Fold each of these.
Amino acid sequence: MPHENSLPGGFIAAPVRIGGTVRKPPVSAFVHGLLHHFEQHDWPGAPRYRGADDQGRDTFTFLRGDVPWQPEPTPYVRSPAALTATARLVRRFHDLTAGTALAADQEVVCHNDLSPKNTVYRDAEPVAFIDWDIAAPGRIHDVAHVCWQFLGLGPAVSDPAEAAALVAVIAQAYGGLDQAELVDTILWWQDRCGRGIDSGANAGEPAMIRLWEQGAVQSVRSAYEWTLRHRAVLAHATPWNLAHATPSNGDKIDVDPADDRSPGNAPNHAR
Ligand SMILES: Nc1ncnc2c1ncn2[C@@H]1O[C@H](COP(=O)(O)OP(=O)(O)O)[C@@H](O)[C@H]1O
Ligand SMILES: [Mg+2]
């Protein structure tokens, strides 16, 4: 009997590792098809699906690296370099699914739970996303979720202007996003998530009941209120601000000294 190791950081599924594989309760046929699609395109940013095991659990390849699953993620998660790589990784799988049957009537397939605890890092660089259980068609709300989760948008943020600059880094690295629309989508998504937990718990869904009991509705609402309060700052900052902000790992964005833009009149690079 192969040895099973439980994996830290799981919230719902309690997956286990067996050798080079991870076993989880079965996910949908849609997710199997999505992971096959990524494999067919040789995209290394997701685990491979390897079928069901003799206990009916789904089998995925184990991806080597670090998964920052603790509530307070490792500082490199919020470095401009890692955020840029994260946004590009998201854009890559969105592009891979754009216009496919998997995206149905939407633009692309969204992961729907992009956060540090579902990201594998190697040498402080994001290389893959795991936990594709709730992937579904969509687009911009996946990037909104990235901003919320990777930047921890909410009352714990001490410097909204720095957070705004990092939202701009994400919007710019993803490409082609209107930053004001992105911030409005964060608000819409936070509100929707709060309501979703409430109604799911009322409907008796075990995962939603657990979240509700942990006070998730209250913390999502505080995050929403914080984002609403700082909406104008978040919507109009550009990466220019990073020259004056101090991201958690001390990284700076290179700024051309001849470039005399100010936040008030700078063009919005994220558009
Ligand atoms: N394919 C994988 N490769 C490496 N680690 C994994 C993989 N799948 C899961 N893990 C580890 O197990 C933890 C929980 O897995 P996850 O699929 O996110 O479960 P849950 O649905 O409960 O959130 C992750 O945070 C990660 O540490
Ligand atoms: Mg997870």
Amino acid sequence: MACKIPYFLNPYEKSVNFTNFWGSNKQLLSKKSFSDSTTAQKIRKAIKFWQDNTCITFKENGPDNHFLNFYKGSGCWSYIGNVSSFTQQDISIGAGCEQVGIIEHEIGHALGFFHTQSRVDRDSFVKIDTSNIDSEMLDNFDKESPSTNDNFGLEYDYGSVMHYSENAFALDENKPVMTSLTSKLYQKTMGNRVEPSFTDVLMMNKLYQCQDKCASSTFKCNNQGFNNPSNCNKCVCPGGFGGENCGYRKLASNGSTTCGENLQASTEWKSLDRTVGNDRYEVTDEVSTCHWFLIAPVGKHIEIKVDYLGRICSSGCFYGGTEFKLGNFTKTGYRMCCKADYENLPTMTSQNHLAIISLYTIYYNQQFQIKYRYID
Ligand SMILES: [Zn+2]
């Protein structure tokens, strides 16, 4: 049974007309004003994500000279970058925002990120149907200019944690506000709030020039992973890749050795039916993820026919989904979570001899059923 679950989407975000960074020591001070300790725990997890994957550090309950004040305001919002005129810079984690991925998004703003669909190059990637947006809300879709937006040469990523979902601010929720101009299979990739994407993490590291820290490291990362500035002898890997140096398939996030496999394709169709998650209707702080590598002989291509996707349907595959990476492994692939979203479930072909499938969930469970083979 499929069920649609709406989620709360940042309607109160403010933006300032300049972007600034935090101190040259790259340390943000934060102060929690939560009596609700479960939310405080989630905030600490979100802070830890950025801290563990960049050179930025946070100090809880530091001195009162310009600090980030997490508080339970109205909605989820943040200022963009360091607003130096404040002593106390508020970041609101209101009702419905108490989720690690949403908090990671808000911290992304506080660190200097705009929304992805505000990128200066967004008109090459999404079409925005302004007739389906309340005129008072239109400024949420403002586009930045070359002087206000630097993407450090990184490609547009539909799966960025800073991207809105396809029907954010829609007057008619059954019609998309944003349509991908490059593939309709990216429609549900937009709106990720599970955790920041590889591109998000790389861009944050570029914004804060974190990579200088590991410039002389001899520890090498494969598959376009990069040295983790919080520990140069570790790598930050594109999704699906893991091991010490991103050279292998990443193991299941829950430590399971049976979830996720390397599978050799043949010229005959083979079936694959997998589920990840549990039977509890509650959002978890930890993402359960497993990855499958479908491998063809070099020079051949993987063909995938999707037979089923479920069980939780959500806008932006907010609670979980299946991701298919068929070419560029550094960018988020096609994310799908619900059979009912498709008139016909897709058949897709990889650009080279490897296809990566990632199945992830933060709520109940998620399943895919596919057939795969290799073709010329
Ligand atoms: Zn936002």
